[in-house]
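My main concern about presentation is that the manuscript never shows what a single data entry looks like. For the editor and my fellow referees, an illustration may be useful. For illustration, here is how one protein appears when written out as sequence plus structure tokens:

***
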Amino acid sequence: MDLLFLGTSAGVPTKARNVSATAVIEASGSHWYLVDCGEGTQHQLLHTPLSIRDLRGVFITHVHGDHCFGLPGLLASAGMSGRSEPLDLVLPAALHDWVRLSLAASDTFLPFELRLLAVEEMTKWSSDMLEVSTVQLSHRVPSVGYVFTELNPEPRLDVQRLDVEGIPRGPLWGELAKGHAVEHAGLVLHGRDYLRASRPARRVIVCGDNDSPELLAKVAKDVDVLVHEATFTQAIVERSGVTFGHSTAAAVAQFAEAAGVRNLVLTHFSARYQRDPRRSPCIEDVHREALAHYSGHLTLAQDLQRYHIGRDGCLVPMACGTQH
């Protein structure tokens, strides 16, 4: 799986960062999934190789506008792009009527089926490539994290089973390798039953806003990548005395270290953190604070940057325009 960040700012956009949106891309590179959809997400997509027609599902973490105000425009553009495949939209039940009203009031016609699913009622969602589950977080409003787990990654034929069952090599094996169903000796054989994963499944957690990283303790075990907000540094919180339901870089890093998280990606930075290290506070403050508590592979997400889990298990940035 790859990650492509479409927005990494908290609350409001900046000149360098848009508000929350993260693309999770299948290992095949063919399809992708969107976690959160802040205002302007569809504009960010124009600077990437991702197509709305290849979008398999949208997952909204909570009701705050910087995580969902881009939905009506994205859906309208999906319709105008010629999308015809149904689209699942997993989001808080409180947003369902808002989505319907936005489309109805703007006289927006969608030439595809839009399936609104309440995150409160979802236990697991799956495609043929990924399974998605949720973990409850702590914020000023209900918020969740989404756990993406690969299904049967890079499948290969179970040659031993085929030989044991006496299925002759040749065209039948070729069709089963493609996942197709075939007939043999009066029986229907399904490709999915003869394919086995060739490597361990990767797991990625993309969180919504959360002031209690320890809530991830159970699901973070053996996770490949944890994407978590680090809205503030500890110094800012101590000075202001409030967190507004968000985490500091120190709190997230301490949790990730204790949980043994291999790759920690921080995102959702307060607009006060400048890019220029000569100005204070700056984004390097977030980086230094996290490094003081975490010894794993640390990444501060950047807008429009794509990251890939390398063969060594580390998340690495990819050159612009490249795909795995």
